[in-house]
Every structure is written in structure tokens, then in C-alpha cells.
Amino acid sequence: MLRYSLRRLATALPTLLAVITLSFFMMRIAPGGPFDQERALDPVIRANMEAAYHLDLPLWHQYLIYLGNLLRGDLGPSFTMPEFTVAELFAAGLPVSVQLGGWALVLALLIGGGLGIAAALRQNGWIDVAVVAVATAGSTIPTFVVAPVFQLVFGLSLMWLPVGGWQDGAARNMVGPVVCLMLPQLAVVARLMRGSMIEALRAHHIRTARAMGLSGWSVVGRHALRSAMLPVVSYAGPAAAALLTGSVVVETIFSVPGVGRYFVDAALNRDYTVVMGAVVVVAVFTIVFNLIVDLLYAIIDPRVRYA
Amino acid sequence: MHDHISAHSQSLWSKAWTRLKRNRAAMASLTYLVLMVLACSFGPMLAPNSYSELFQSYTRVPASLSAYPRAEQIGPAIEATAARARLDLTGWQLQGDTVVIEVSARRAIDPRAVQYFDRSDLFADTRLQATDDTHATLTAQIERHWFFFGTDATGRDLFARTLIAGRVSLAIGVLAGLVAAVIGVFYGAIAGFAGGRTDQIMMRVVDVLYSLPFIFFVIMLVVFFGRNFLLMFVAVGAVLWLDMARIVRGQTLSLRRQEFVEAAEALGVSPFAILTRHIIPNLLGPVIVFLTLLVPNVIILESFLSYLGFGVQEPMSSWGILIAQGARAMPSANWMLAFPALFLISTLFALNFLGDGLRDALDPKDH
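Output (C-alpha cells, whole complex):
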């Protein structure tokens, strides 16, 4: 298992390198630069600034410098927020995004999974119809509709929760963002769980278990759930990577200081280092969570063996 | 041989159609979608107002089935217009659709004062009858305007805008979906059919593109090509073909091992002919099902990008843009969010139900 994990990480490195290379050159070839402002800078100042950030060197040289710094864990300084390094920005923002995304993920898996199982056990019953309706609604209503409506209802009308803000992670401030992040994921998880559970309940070993007189709970919980979980687990990997690295919509609407908004803001301002930092963070999360999914597969499904 | 194949495939499709017709949710969704497409295609021409006309007297008026102006709006509008024309209002009364306004002024009344009234969105065909130099009677027709969905912050008719936005959203959804499908099908089919090293390299490329953060990718495309309508198709299509390529590759791998493909190979049919004649037609079922699920995804994606400000440009609109504007006007003007959101969500719902119905109809495994 350990050897398999190491080998998987080793094969993931070329992918990571390709992602970094591609984004680096795409970003740099794009027109515009971080020092383009409405009022043109004095050419001498501009040349000095570009020299300070190595922007005057040929592109391949800059690329090598960036890779070298990255290997040493240095993500560089931010162009648009010169008082911070990229590492500092992410150190401040990532915990916020991870907290919100983590809660959203856990709740989506538990509630969505529960709803999916309940729907599968009473296929075509009223619970099933309700769950399918909720799942369809959750996956079709965009977050940028849910979030302002949530603010309006719970923030402005009922005054139960703050409309936005973070306040160092107060529970009241987290409810809105977590709910809005959770709903679409919950919908997908419920759908996947329902589908795979219906299939799992038809399997031969489940029929055998039933015939041998096992109780309904034990059949579902110990035998059917195991195989029904697999599609949910493989969905949860990329979903976790996406959730934990923040959402631009939710973070903007609820004014939460996470890292999701860095992508859009930094790419538009050509804040090269921040964009690259975000790319690296998302790619690393994606690779790590795909690996976790593979390992979970081996634990859940005894047929999967890693040499 | 040829006849036999087409007769067989026809019966497959007609069987699927029969199965689909029995699914009431799917048929209702299909009807709804046809109506929505018709409404968005022809509605903007039939709507009482143009989608780009600004009604400055009617900014942010609520949705209403009855015509504007409301009775209580006429008085303040006359007062404001008279003040703008530097006339003193001495009295006014409403006679049916005509309003008679008595005005006076310290200096001689300029007959061009009627233009102030005509320019307002409430009055038309204003006439001036001077009683003497400083007193006059104005008669103006009340202009009726219908705003079924209300108006936005600049006084544009939201009904016409929601329909024209639907045209953009649906067109992007369908066309970008097709772009993604065509790229994905060919890429996946070639990778799966070629197999070996070619397959590995091609799928590794997909893996790399998959790990690229998706918003970043789209923003880069927008940065490169500027904000334009055509770009949205390409950007969205170029991002969403990856899933399609993976699905098609998997299907192709299993089709390749089937006897009829081996038979064709043994008979010396060229690889290209096998691909177009045997592989791709057999992929159509899963591809159509995936496409109906892809179209709502494209529409969500387009509205998300529009929400972030990367969409089509004013005065054109899409549901995402309208929703973004509505969300910003939220507590005071909730019709601005409600109607575009309702159109978007109901369309997505219908596409989802249709997709589920098609999957059941085309998937012979369950029957």
C-alpha cells in the first residue's frame, strides 16, 4: 500500500509539472501585465520594477526561476498586494476556505448519503420522490441564486444570521456559506447514492444475506452500503479538492476572506504569482484527494488489490 | 446489408421514442422546452417593448399585468415635467386617456415646451393651446406601457430582456454542448480505437487539462480573445469536452472487442471506415444521454461566467447576467431576480427530467 501510494505520487508529479508549465505560459502569453495601470508608469520606474521581479528576463529563464523557487517552497511575492507574499496570502485564506469546504463536504456526504439510502430503500415511495426532487433542485438552482435568497431570508427578514462577514470563523457566520456550498454537492451525492444503492440491493450477495435471515439494517449497513459507497467515494475526491480550495461566488457574496476569489481577481489583474499559487494549490489538492480515493477504494472493496 | 442495418437502427430509435412517450415527466419537460425555445426565439419580436429601450420614467417598476402609468404616477410626473419646462402648474385633470394640464408662466410660454412632455415616457402627442401669453392649456395622450416582469435599474423591460437572454443562454447551451460533444466523441473514439501508446498519451493530455483549475482556464480564454459571443461557445465547449472524451473512450474500448468490429477488421475495412461506420453510430445512445445532461451544465456555466462579468455585452443579455443584476438589486427589487431565475431554473429542471427520460429510453439494460 505504501509502495503503491509512493508510486502514484511519483506518476502524479509529471501531471503537476505539466499543469504548472501550461498555466505559467498561458498566463504570460496573455496580453497585459501586472504594472499596466490607467496612468502609465514612468519608464525608468517600470523598468526597475520589472527588473526587481525578473520580468525583463526571457520567458524560459523566468520559468526556470519560478520552478526553482517553487521547489524551495517559495511562491514569490504578490504583484498587486506588495506587502504580502503569496505564501502569506494563502496561509491566511486557505484555512478559511478549508473550514467552510470541509464542513460543506462532511455534511453533504452525511445528509446526501442518508437521503440517497432512504430513497433507495423506498424506491418510488414518497421519500424517494421527495429526495429526487430535492436532488434535482439542488443541482439545478445555481449557487448565485441560492446565496442572495439565503441572505434575504435569514439575514434581512428573519435576522437569524449575519448577512456576511467572517468574524474569525464565528459559527453564525459560517452557516450561510456552508449551506450554499453544500447544497449542490448534497444533491449529487444523494443521486449517486440512490442509484448505486438500488443496484447494490439487487446483487446476489445481498439476496443471500437476506435469505440467511440477516436483519434489514445489517444487510443495508454492512453489506449493501460497502459497494454502494464506491461511486460516491470516487465523486467525493475531486469534489473535496474543489470545495476545500474555495468558491469565488460564495466567498464574494458572503464577504468571506477565503482563497476562492484569488483566481478571478488575480487573473484579471495579471497578478502572476498569486494565480500560479492558486493553480499549484488546486492541483496539489486534486492529486492528493485522487490518491486518497484510490486508497479508500482498496479499503472498502476487498476485490481491489494494489501490488 | 445496408437496408438491413438502417431498418434495425430505425426500430431501435422508434422503440426508444415509444418508451420516452410513456414517461410523463420527460414528455412534459420536452413540451416545456419546445415552448421555451419558441418563446425565446419569437417572444422578443412580439413583446410590447424592445429589450434595449430605456424608459427613464419607469426605472425599477414592479412586475404588473396592467398597464403603466398607474393613476398615482400621473400627478407627480406632470409636476416634474412642468417644473423641468419651467412652467407653473395651476391644475390638471384626467379625461379617459387624455390629460388636460393648465399651466402658467411669468414670461411668454414657448410652444416648444410640449417637447418636455413628449420626451417623458408617460405622455405622447402633446398639444398646446395658449389662452394668452402667460397661460396655456396642454392636452396630452397618456402612453400605455406594459411591463409584465417589471423593469431593471435603467428602465428596460424585463420581460423582453428575459426572453432575449433566454435566446443567448439556450443558444450557448446547445451550441457549446454540441462543440463539446463533437470534440469529445472524436477524441475519445480515436483514443479508444487506437489503443496502446496513442491512447495513453491522449488520455494523459485529458488528465492534465482536467487538473487545470477550470475558472483559470476560462479566464485565460477570455483574456486572450476578449469578451465576445462566439468566444463563450468555444471557451465553454473547450472545457466541457473532457468528460465526454472519457466516457466515449470507455465505450469505444468495449465496442472494439465485439465480434462485428473484429469481423470488419478481418474483412479489411479501413480503420477510419470502422470508426465512422461501426464505432461512432453505436456510441450515439450514451452520447445523446450525456448531451442532455451537458446542456444544462453549459447553461449553468455560462450563467456563472456571466455572473462573474465575462459574458456577452450590454445591451445583449443572458440569464446569468440578469440574475447577477437581480441579486445586486435584491431586497428592494426582487422581481429582477425572480423572473430570470425562474426561467433558468425551470429550463434546467426540464432538461434534467428529459435527460433522465432519455437515459431510461435509450438504455436497453433496464428493459
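The CA atoms of residues 12 and 170 of chain A lie 37 Å apart.
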